[in-house]
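Protocol step 4 of 5: obtain the predicted structure for the target chain.
Materials: sequence only (see below). No template structures provided, no constraints applied. The aim of this step is simply to have a reference model before the mutagenesis design in step 5. Sequence pasted as it appears in the construct record:
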Amino acid sequence: MATSEKPTLADISAWPATVSVPDAAKAIGISKSHLHTLIRRGESPVRTLSFGARHRVITADLVRLLSGELPAA
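Step 4 output (structure tokens):
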């Protein structure tokens, strides 16, 4: 998944159920440090799973965000 160019929505849809914060940040178009900050503040635009100090981003949320769908209630 880690490539130098921004992935397409089709690429992201084919990713596993969760992805790393750096991969998710690249897909969104922000820096990984900014996404880490948003996660710590509880302001992330996508849901994450926390494993101690590590976080994984839920791919389905990335797809929803990037396709312009409203978040699930």
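Step 4 remarks: Residues 19 and 57 are 5 Å apart (CA to CA). The mean pLDDT is 91.
Proceed to step 5.
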